[in-house]
Design goal:
heterodimer; A: about 425 residues; extended; B: about 350 residues; alpha/beta; D-Maltodextrin-Binding Protein, domain 2; 2 domains; two-stranded parallel ribbon; 16 helices; globular
Amino acid sequence: MNDTLPTRVATAEAVARSLRRRYAAERRFRLYGMGAIGIALAMLLILFGTIFGNGWSAFRQTALLLPVTLDAAEIDPPGTRDPAVLSAADYEGQVKAALRAMFPEATGRKDKKALAELVSNGAGYALRDAVLADPSLLDRSFEIRVPASDLVDMVMKGRIRTDVPEADRPVSDSQLGWIAVLRDQDRLSLGFNTQFFIGGDSREPELAGIAGALLGSLWTMLVVLFLAFPMGVMAAIYLEEFASRNRWTDIIEVNINNLAAVPSIVFGLLGLAVFLNFFGMPRSAPLVGGMVLALMTLPTVIIASRAALKAVPPSIREAALGLGASRMQMVSGHVLPLAMPGVLTGAIIGMARALGETAPLLMIGMVAFIVDLPKGPLHAATVLPVQIFLWADSPERAFVERTSAATIVLLVFLVLMNLGAVLLRRRFERRW
Amino acid sequence: MLKKTITLAALAMIAATGAAEARDQIRIVGSSTVFPFSTTVAERFGKTTSFKTPVVESTGSGGGLKLFCAGAGADTPDIANSSRRIKASEVETCARNGVTGIAEVKIGYDGIVVANSRKAPQYDLSLRDLYLALARTVPDAQGNLVANPYKTWKDIDPALPAVKIEVMGPPPTSGTRDAFVELAMDVGCESFEQIAALKKTDPGKFKEVCQTIREDGAYVEAGENDNLIVQKLEANADALGIFGYSFLEENSDKIQGSIVSGAEPEFELIADGKYPLARPLYFYVKTAHVGSIPGIAEFLAEFASDKAWGEDGYLADKGLIPMPDAERAEWAAKAKALAPLEM
């Protein structure tokens, strides 16, 4: 009795002494955690900052208001206004002539070439389309808005340094002079870049658009959805609700988990060997791309669906069975509807991963330059991340901002898909 | 009902696959160096003719020729781009797989530049300097082969700045790297007499000495993306980078090309052959596909026209170094006649 009291006091003292240390350790731990989150957030901010900083200007595009007087005798020699004749004429030559009319001082061959570099070679197509739409333009002078070249566009956006000596920059003094004159006359204007959203790929940055890649991604994702979703959900239902637990189902489970971790390029090799070489399916087709990506997405869908099915309490199953439902009715009428939010979330996250994938597509020929918009899953197509990769590799300066702009579009889609997954979960998920 | 739908869908898929085999679109594969030129012609061709725009894949020269030689059917590509000449072994593979008619077209030259940031002084290098800076083993003063001892450019040549050697260049899988090794390293290496003698007596050893790039950090493999190297050069004024001429041309306000063997990397000097780091670019055509795939002959005509590959052609705007007039006329005639490949 005599010695217990001092011991108790000693314990209390020891606790009091260590208390401060333990609080400090906890504070430090919290700080480490906050630091980790801070670093992650800073990285994210830097990433978004550079992408948006580089990319926002690509959503605007310089157009040139060009006064044109067409030579009707040259464009339409028979004078019949026949569309076939009209569309075959040399409109690029007419655009160049119109420019020379504005700047008659450009006479030498080199000067003329430098002058022609101010407009995009898409200007001729724009002029052709205008004339085809309204042949009466042949008889009068008019003004038309045509795309300016990427050079002018970069100067307008301040992306080319003009304070260095002439030999050290891609734009010459005379070109800068002409650009200044055109600006004074209000003929150069930065407007919304519609071409970027409706055009296919192009080697000219000012004509390049992401519509082709977006459509390609759409077709590919449709194929993924139609293959991976039903297959994945059915596999999950069978494994979770019907299959008996034995060595075989264990092996299958281990393999599904392994497949989820297999590098995606391996699925591309599989696609090349099986779909292209064995079944002889077409190269570069979204159908094959979708099939490969579906294989890649399948494990994710199965794992997420199984987890969602597992979360439905057994009492629901027992109640259904107890009321005389067959197992099939129990699954389709009760378990699956309750598990659906989780299943859909898994599918959406799997699709979002597939949307950002390029490596397997390299093998099956979807890393390609494709101008025509794909009209179906069998047409040659590319996808958004591949488009970003191809533009990032192009020498033209103006492709740098377009690379970032395409990345922004891809990010928007990914954020929307993930947001959809979160909302689905919030809205429909039930907790027991 | 579900069963029926699935069967129908599967049947439709198979039918559609069969229909897709009758191709109406030219398919091109191959070098990423030729890619910008090939795609430019393809785009023009699609917009100005009634044919569909050809599909151009960037697979690398070796990968492209492998696909090209895989067979003769319509499910194989019609044209392979290459930043080097086709190898005899590849022609053999082609022949084994039934691809016998191959026409060769040379399209022009590509310059390889060694460049640095404009914030630093311009370098004036010889091929020997480049070899000494980048090889893993170099001969010392006594002529013995030793591990590369050079740390700064001044160690190699007192006229060069006392800056640490740091060169960013393409990885071994790249055609640009192959060409750089062949055009710069081999030649610089042969400038040492005892190594030049080695070429005859022990070609294997010669290759090992001349073509192996050092791995002690002085040479940084910067990936296939040349834009990335340009950005890194901007950020690091002490570094040099190795990449294609068109990237120098587009970024001339930020980076400058080094003088190599007394010649600046300028359009005229590369075209004249005065600049030593220039390599020819080619494409190869399956002659059996001309006629069965619509538009190949017309595509060749577009590529081999002066408005495309000529001195003022649109490919020159994209950075292609055109061939001299006579050579161009010769290759245009060959392209028109689909002259068979002569090794």
